[in-house]
Amino acid sequence: MQKYDVAIIGAGLSGIVAARKLKQAGASVLLLEKEQTVGGRLATSITAEGKADIGAQFFTVRTEELQQEVEGWLEKGWVKRWFGEDYPRYTSVDGMSSLACRLAEGMDCVTSTMITAVNAQDSHIVLHDSSGSLYKCKRVVCTLPAPLTVNLIGKSSLGLKVEAYQKLKEIQFQPTYVGVFQLERSPYTPESGHIDKQLPADVERIVDHQKKGISKTPLMSVYMTADWSVSHESSESTLKMIKNKTSPYLDFRKLISEQLEIWPYAQAVTTCPHSFLEIDNRGKLLVAGDAFLRPGDQAGKTRFESAFLSGHDAANHILSDS
Fold it and tell me: Helix, strand or coil for residue 219?
């Protein structure tokens, strides 16, 4: 049985940020991720000719904590200012998944593993994964989407705080469909390659990744609104409907390839008014993620910064309680 000071379930941005901060303070930390790579919605699709971000496209900064980090990322050449004067939009220079990988570099991380049980053992928590491995930890931070966390810990032997668990259960998400299209010719788009105004109904944004600077060829990401995504089931006709919606902007007569990405937990419609929750009676298990907002959060919605702050605050709580 492997032993750690802290195990973090979910290697999206919240989990990575918490892990970095805890490791820098000298804790032994394990990141556990069910996908093949880290990043969560900091996701990039890679083709022979280029890259297309298919999750988060950019992030903004409203807090001093994130601004300090971003200044370091800019100095290292990891991110750049993409567009926006009053509120700069920052993005990774070579795809958002690359930023996640850089932030997670040097971490003890197990990917392609799913945690199936979380149980108390003496003064520790023992995690069971789908391969039969066990991890014994002093503390655990779970950064899975809230509905998945509810399913995981609801059957645990930890002894959950009723009020905190109820707040967790109240967090609900809407999905988002993203169509990714490789075209023969770049369409007319602004210099940045980003469009989110005067689009057809049900289309949230279009991004040209050639103009964004991460693709050699015209690779387009088309994001549908949450309301449209909720009302449509994934099928062979989904991409066709997305193309019909965006045909005034994109010339699909010279379509080279297409793919559909589905994010089931893209945007929280109900959030938690705390940047993390201590969920069990012994204070051993914290839950965090982009749907956990600091009191008085200026934006009031899930985003890159809320994920960053949630992981940051959860790690600070563990360090202050050590």
Answer: strand
pLDDT digit string (tens) for the chain, length 322 residues: 789 999 999 999 999 999 999 999 999 999 999 999 999 999 999 887 789 999 999 999 999 999 999 999 999 999 999 999 778 999 999 999 999 999 999 999 999 999 999 999 888 999 999 999 999 999 999 999 999 999 999 888 889 999 999 999 999 999 999 999 999 988 888 899 999 999 999 999 999 999 999 999 999 999 999 999 999 988 889 999 999 999 999 999 989 999 999 999 999 999 999 999 999 999 999 999 999 999 999 889 999 999 999 999 999 999 998 6
Q: Beta 134-142 vs 2-9: how paired, if at all?
A: parallel
Dist. CA 78–CA 92, nearest whole Å: 6
Q: Is the separation of the CB atoms in 224 and 202 below 8 Å?
A: yes
Angle between helices 96-103 and 13-24 (to 10 degrees): 30
Reduced to 3 states (helix: H, G, I; strand: E, B; else coil), residue 233 is coil
Give the integer Cα–Cα distance in Å for 36 and 34: 7
Which residue has tokens 């066709």?
Answer: 240
Domains detected in the chain: 2-39+104-171+271-320 (3.50.50.60), 173-267 (3.90.660.10)
Residue 295 tokens read as 């009191």
CA-CA distance, 222 to 244, in Å (whole number)?
A: 12
Distance CA(204)–CA(266), nearest Å, equals 13
Task: Looking at 231-303, list the stretches that DSSP marks H as alpha helix, in order from N- to C-terminal side.
Answer: 238-246
Query: What is the token pair recorded at 176?
Result: 């988002």
Tokens read off for 16: 């990575």
